[in-house]
Design goal:
Blueprint: H1 2-20, H2 26-64, H3 72-106
Length: 117
């Protein structure tokens, strides 16, 4: 008799958790996990698209800058400045993409992050 009551109590608890939304099906969990992973992938893969024109501009400025031929120190400084500018641009773009992802994960009913392009 005690086992029956224990089982009934557990079943009532499971039903309560399901009704309150604290318990979800494995299929629903897999679907939500898939959507989160897809949103993460999409957010990161948009970075090259959204930064393409700016990186192009950095490269054009680098190759167009008046650098003395053979002055390796001047060439190195210009290349380091361009690399730093690219790093800052990528950091900003990745941060924006990941912030959009975080917002989506906190509120899955909202739209998934999309490209700015």
């Amino acid at each position: 008799m005690s086992i029956d009551r224990h089982y009934t109590a557990l079943m009532k608890k499971v039903e309560f958790l399901r009704e309150t939304g604290e318990l979800t099906s494995v299929d629903k969990f897999r679907q939500e996990t898939f959507m989160a992973a897809r949103a993460a992938r999409d957010a990161v893969l948009t970075v090259p698209v959204t930064t393409n024109r700016e990186i192009y501009g950095i490269i054009i400025r680098l190759v167009s800058s008046p650098i003395s031929t053979g002055n390796t120190e001047e060439i190195q400084k210009a290349a380091e400045a361009a690399a730093n500018e690219c790093r800052q641009l990528l950091k900003k773009s990745l941060s924006k993409a990941l912030q959009g992802l975080a917002n989506y994960l906190l509120n899955p009913e909202s739209e998934a992050p999309v490209s700015d392009s």
